[in-house]
Every structure is written in structure tokens, then in C-alpha cells.
Amino acid sequence: MQIHELPRRPNRNLDHIPGDYGLPVIGHTYSLLRNSHKMGKHMLDTYGPVFRSSALFQRTVGLVGPDAARFVLLEGEKNFAAEPAWNLIIGGLFQGGLLLKDFGEHRSHRRALQQAFKRPVLEAYCNSLNYYLDEGINSWPVDTHFDLFPRLKGLLLENAIQSFFGEDPDCDTQALSRAFIDMLDATLTLVRKPLPGTKWRRGMAGREVIKSYLKSQIQLRKANPGNDFLSSLCTASDEEGRLTDDEIIDHMIFLIFAAHDTTTSTLSSATRILCQHSHWQTRLRQSFAAVQGEYLSMDDFAALPELDWFFREVLRMHPPVPGITRRTVREVEYGGYTLPANASVFVSIRLMHYLPEHWTNPETFDPERFSPERAEHKRNSFQWLPFGGGAHKCLGLHFAEMQTKIFLFQLLRKFSVALDPKHAPQIRAVPLEMPKNGLHIALKPL
Fold first, then answer.
1. C-alpha 299 chain-centroid distance
2. CA torsion, points 30, 31, 36, 37, in degrees to nearest 10?
3. Which of 84, 222, 283, 364 sits 20 to 30 Å CA-CA off 376?
4. In percent, how much of the chain has pLDDT > 90?
């Protein structure tokens, strides 16, 4: 069976696999939305690392563990496809993005997009990230509690537009930001038709705003490219030839969405953890003494190993994307069970990051587990996967790492940060891990 032959809806014939479907109609949806980690751990403890479940009106085979991740992600036999799995979630709004391509087409487009993440372009990103993040953080209130989440979300979205689109004096950044926010809001709606007054309609209108802007810029960037993502993408080539204008637009829209939302999640988690483990604020701040100047350069990252351990541990405990979804292209065998063709498969990243057979005291925040002396993440090359793995491993992982580390550097060198004692943060884990009720903090100048 070819990918284009797969039915839109996944195969529901999974009764031969251990597990249960939960309540009639809604399945485990309530448990998933309330506490997805607890729900997944219950299924793992009850049924083992291969189980069936049902949530959000879809029956799925859950797979847990590094071996399962390697089996699904290496795609040696082209048994698993990303496009039909993700299309039900983000298709329409983010159509044509790299995540929604498979096999030969995916490899061709990925080679072209890699041109935009070469060293000279990343260095230009690094400079702009330092400037815009420093400027944004300095604009926040001090010595008073405020909700960090909306400010962080707005700062990172504006920063992503500026970094990816480059300098354009005529660009209406606020209009593009509003359009992206409408698109992001639309991903969470169950009504996926452009009916009047719906989030989906506003999201599709937002896509047209961004598409129109990008269309007006492509020829200008091809004629006079700069060191920004859009320019690099416009001039990128692969063995099959240049990307078309429509392909450039699709990739730009998707990549800004991916870069913005996942980094917002990571920095929300990192800030909350810094408040809960305040000695790491001091420890990181002391390590920054190795940096000359007020900006981080790409060469500085190697001199900040503790910042890297902190970054990795935040992503272990709080991966922005809870798991990886795929569809089986054909019938396959795993763990003694037959996965039928066109079955929905979910590899849980978060459950894997808490397996006690791979991590020492996995419920404990312990960045030193990533130190050279312990190197727990090297016990299995597929046990730490916040950026995925295999052919679809996140193309922007270095950009995301750079953005996160620069934010922490610019924040901690000027401020200490503390949670509002009157506010108890709650976490929403699906579809991305985000603060459910805001993130109320106070900044105190050093």
C-alpha cells in the first residue's frame, strides 16, 4: 500500500493488542487532557510497552521505549508515514510543511531546507536573538508579579518573525503576529470547517495574510538575499532543483509555527524550574563568568557545559511535544504483535524520558545526569528524544537550543526570578506542554 492510498481515517481493528478503549465514544480523552502522563503510565504499567487505547475519537497503538522509537523512526523499510498521521492534526493550516512529507519527497525538501541552517546563517540568528531577547526581557516589569506566559509567547513569536523574515522596514510585524496567533488557536479547535465565527475560519484567514506577505517577498529575496531564513530558503537548491514559491511559503509558515510554539513551551518549563530550584539560577549565573561581553556567541556555548546539562534536563522532564505519531503503511510486527496497515501509532517521548531502567531517579530534577561522568543519556541513543529522531529529526534543533540558551543568559545575568506564592502553576500537556493557568513570576534586578 502506498501513502496516497491510505484511507483518511486510521484502521480501528486493534482488539488483538492488549489494552482498552476507555469510556464509550470519548475513550480516554478526559484522562488524556487532565493528566496525560499519569494516563500513559497507567496503560504502560497495566498492559506493557505495546498497548491499544482510544482518545480524541481515534484508536491508537501506544509504543514505549527506546527500541520502539528506533523501530518506528529509522524507517528502514518505509513502514511508517508521518503525513497521514499529522495531517489530521495540523493539515490545512500548515499543509506542505516538512513534517507532512515522507520518504523521497521528504529527503529532497530536507536537503533544501538544511541550507538555511548553515553556520553563517546561524551566526546571524545568534546576533539578532541576543539583541531582541535582551530588549524584550528588559521591557518586562520588575519587583512585581506578572504573568510571564503571554509576554514570553508574544516575544518569541515576534522574535521568530524578525529572525526568519529578516530586516524589512515595511513589514507589519504586529499584523503577522496576530495572523500566526489565529492559526495557533485554530489548531486546538474540534470544528475544522471555515464556518463563520469559528477559530478555524480565523486561522485560515491568518494563513492567507502570511501567505500574501511571503509571496510579495520571494522575488525580492531571490534578487537581493540576506542572512535570514527566508532569503536562504529562496536561494536553496537540492539535487532535484529549487523549491517552488508555493513550497517556500508552506515551509516558512510551518517552520515558524514549529519554532515558536515548542520554544515557548521549553522556556516556560525552564523558567518555572529555575524558580523551583533557585540554586540553579546562582549556578548558571556563576558559569556565565566565562563569557566575555553582554552577548553569547556560537563559540561561547562550548564553554557553558552546565547550561547544556540544564537545557537537556528541562527537555527530558518536559518535552514540548509529548510523543511522535505515525501511520503504518503496511502490516508490521513489533513486540510479538501485528500492527495492521493504516494503524495509528504513538511513540510516547515523555514516558520514555521517565523509564527507571534508563534514568536514575527519573522523577527528580538532576541536570548532572548529563555530565560526562554520568552521561545517562548515552545508555541508549534513542532514550532522549525531545527533537525526535531518524529522518524526521527536528531540523531546527540548533536554532531552538541557541534561542533557549540565549534567553536564559540574558535573563539571569540581570535578574533573579521567583514564582508568585499565591499562584499554583498548572500544566497542560496536550497537544504541546504549556502553562494551563499562566506562569506568574516576579523579576528582581541583581
1. 25
2. 170
3. 283
4. 70
pLDDT of residue 258: 84
Alpha-carbon distance 420 to 403, whole Å?
25
Query: Contact at 8 Å (CB) between 75 and 391?
Result: yes
The per-residue pLDDT for range 109-130, each reduced to its tens digit, is 998 888 778 888 788 889 889 9
What's the Cα-to-Cα distance from 334 to each of 60, 104, 112, 380, rounded to whole Å? 15, 25, 34, 19
The pLDDT value recorded for residue 112 is 86
Provide φ and ψ at 52, rounded to 5°.
Answer: -105, 150
Cβ-contact 98, 83 below 8 angstroms = no
Lowest mean pLDDT among 1-15, 75-89, 304-318: 1-15
Q: What number of other Cβ atoms are within 10 A of residue 38's Cβ?
A: 12
Cell of 352: 520514555
Instruction: Output the pTM of the full model.
Output: 0.94
The residues, ordered by sequence, that sit 6+ positions from 93 with a Cβ below 8 Å of its Cβ are 183, 186, 187, 203, 204, 207
The pLDDT mean for the chain works out to: 91
pLDDT of 76: 63
DSSP 26-79: TBTHHHHHHHHHHHHHHHHHHH-SEEEEEETTEEEEEE-SHHHHHHHHS-TT--
Sheet containing strand 80-81, strands side by side: 50-55, 58-63, 344-348, 323-328, 80-81
Hey, what CATH class is 3-445 in?
mainly alpha
Element (H, E) at 58: strand 58-63
User: What pLDDT is attached to residue 4?
Assistant: 59
Q: Residue 201: in which H helix or E strand, if any?
A: helix 199-223
Phi, psi of 251 (to 5 degrees): -65, -40
Tell me which of 190 and 362 has the higher pLDDT: 362
Quote the CA–CA distance of 33 and 55 in Å, as a whole number.
9
Q: What angle do CA 146, 130, 312 make, to 5 degrees?
A: 75
